[in-house]
Amino acid sequence: MTNSTTPNPHQPPTTAAKTYVLITPCRNEADFIEGTLQAVIAQTVRPKKWVIVSDGSTDRTDEIVERYAQKHDFILFLRQSGDRQRNFGSKVEAINLAYEHLRELQFDFIGNLDADITFDSSYYANILSKFEQNERLGLAGGLRLDFSRGRFVKVLCAKNSVGGPIQMFRRQCYETIGGYQRLSCGGIDAVAETMVRMHGCQVESFPDITVYHHRATGTAGGGVIRARFKKGEQHYLIGYHPLFHMASCMFRFSSFPFMLGSLAEIAGYTWAFLRRQKRVVPDDFVRFLRGEQWARLRSLLLTQRDPALRSQTQE
Predict the structure, then answer these.
(1) Count of alpha carbons within 13 Å of 111, Cβ hemisphere only?
(2) Distance (Å, rounded) from C-alpha 158 to C-alpha 172?
(3) Contact call for residues 111 and 21 (beta carbons, < 8 A)
(4) Which of 54, 207, 215, 220 makes a 20 to 30 Å CA pair with 82?
(5) Average pLDDT, stretch 293-306?
(6) Sign, CA torsion 157/132/178/213
(7) Which domain holds residue 294?
């Protein structure tokens, strides 16, 4: 690394001056959290602080995290009672509790990290480098592989989308959107990234940086069919356009659990519509989101090449 104050165009951007913090809300993650702890501890660029909040865990999660926190002073372990049933409103409360312990620190980036994620030792150094290369980048993450049916499968999504388990924000951007919204229905990650784009910042996932998710998204509280039904209900509540929702389900007919998953998702959306459930986001958010979705649909009709609509996972 050069000592000159003039940037050297022949060297990759340095991340030495930039710092980040992590927040991990967790509940009954004893089967996975030790792998996540080891992955973060092994990072070439460690977080300035990592706050792990046990959200009413009843297994060995607390014991495992406490053991690591005693050995590593950058790890802060907190507990909150949590709701009896796992829900995203309680998760946001855990995130907000963690953020109160970080607010006074000086840092540049803040990451939400699920307790069932692993990655190689250069993951965060690489993500920080992406932020350094693009000042407009407000939210970033890697390519996620979910564990499904005994193997890791690639999660395909739009390039301007980052999955909730690995979202990392520029601090200013995170504070501008007010962090994660308390939505008991879920969708907190989708709402957050949409708000980032609403405020003029870029969202990008990078296929050259890989992360491993050791449990399929949304299945922590039950099976895949139940998760897909809840996802359909969630999409209605956060304002998805019905045509976009229908198209996305149709293009996922071939994804496990094949047609049943898509039908469950359509049923969830329809159930919320028939019950006239109240939207959980403001009207301007819905207008912006549906504008993006119409643009995606037009692109699909013209090119037939929108991977986020075709499938969420590909073996």
Answers:
(1) 28
(2) 24
(3) yes
(4) 215
(5) 77
(6) positive
(7) 224-303
